[in-house]
Design a protein that fits this description.
alpha+beta, 20% helix
């Protein structure tokens, strides 16, 4: 219930077969360019998760053909244009490299180990 109003897509399963089917559907739904939202597959916390029930498993090739291969638009290990995450951004001096409030150390970049280097 804590994530109910977060805007995520939630798929609920009544039995184990539905849970399996929902997991297969979750990736193509969430990765679709017109959707791009997290998908959460929900099932009962005891009855279906601990039940012994037969389900129909699809063969691996059919699953791979349905789910497809993931091609991220923005990924973290992009050397040609790395995105900034947190307080460190490529191309900018590190916090504190110019001294207190930016006074007195103009042009200093700090030790070479502080500088961002492309992978």
């Amino acid at each position: 219930m804590g994530i109910r109003d977060a805007g995520w897509i939630q798929l609920y399963a009544e039995n184990n077969q539905e849970a399996y089917d929902n997991y297969l559907q979750a990736m193509p739904i969430g990765e679709d360019p017109s959707v791009r939202l997290p998908v959460m597959v929900c099932q009962d916390g005891f009855i279906t998760s601990h039940a012994l029930e037969n389900i129909v498993l699809l063969d691996t090739d059919s699953v791979k053909a349905f789910v497809g291969e993931y091609h991220p638009e923005h990924y973290l290990l992009k050397a040609e244009n790395p995105p900034g995450r947190g307080g460190l951004r490529p191309g900018l001096p590190l916090h504190g490299a110019q001294g207190p409030a930016g006074r007195g150390h103009e042009g200093r970049q700090g030790p070479a180990s502080w500088r961002w280097r492309p992978v």
